[in-house]
Specification:
Elements (H helix, E strand, L loop, with lengths): L1 H42 L12 E3 L4 E3 L4 E10 L13 E10 L13 E2 L12 E4 L15 E9 L7 E6 L2 E5 L7 E5 L4 E6 L13
Parallel strand pairs: 1-11
Antiparallel strand pairs: 2-3, 3-4, 4-7, 5-8, 6-7, 8-11, 9-10
Length: about 210
Amino acid sequence: MSSRRSVRTALRRAWVWIGAGRWRQIGAGVVAGVLLAPVAIAAVGGFATADDVQAQRYAVGQRLDLGQVEVEVRSTFLSAEVQTHALPEEASAWLGVVVEVVNRGDEEVILSRDLLRVPGLDPLQEHPRTTVVVSDESFLVTLSPDVPHEVAMLWPLAGSPAAQSVEVELYPVLAQESMLDPGSILWQVEPLLGVVEVPVTDVPPTLVDEED
């Protein structure tokens, strides 16, 4: 009987040792994971601040796919002689960003105001206040498929900056089907794609208002 108890005791001790070893391994794995996780995150830039992350730079005139439309940023201007009747009282001038846009989809779209931003000049509002067609100063209403339009997006400015160039931020806008209204399309703004540094040039003559 004592020999059987000894065998059972030895088996119990062996099982406890094996189980403890297994949990020691699991515990060690968890600890190692916790300790190494910051290293892995840092290796891929996970702890980088917004100032540390460098946005992709694109060239003036480079055609870029921003989801809803293809965009080619061409020039910028600063002027109070454009859309004078629409310039807000608190604004001193317009910042205009001249772009060519092409709708590559199958249906007409209304150009999203989320595609471009110009935070460096501190405009009075984040989105362009209006968008006009460069050729005749008409307001852009819709974009038909595969028809290019050269337009000027206008932001009101409170001050009178003497900038030689403007950094234009690019944000893709992608189509998503509405979960609440099947068949309807919603446009979802994506994170910053990149930046184009655009020189400030003269206002396109077709946009300058005639003096009364």
